Amino acid sequence: MLTKREAAARLNVHETTLARWAEHGLVTKRAYNAHYHLYEIPVSNVPRKQCSRWNRLVDRAAAIAKTIN
Asked: Which residues of 25-58 are buried (b: 16+ CB within 10 A; e: fewer)?
């Protein structure tokens, strides 16, 4: 489990991008304080930056959910 800053650095994205990915289920976040979360980067199928105009987060999250189920 990593802090937002550590996880964003490891994925080479901005912290805001990481938070949006967590909202859509691409990255798992767990609350550990009233204001802070720890992030878990998936071992397989690691998310990466893409053009959101052509490949929206909602569609990416649905595709990942479909492969899990």
From this structure: bbbebeeeeeeebbbebeeeeebeeeeeeeeebe
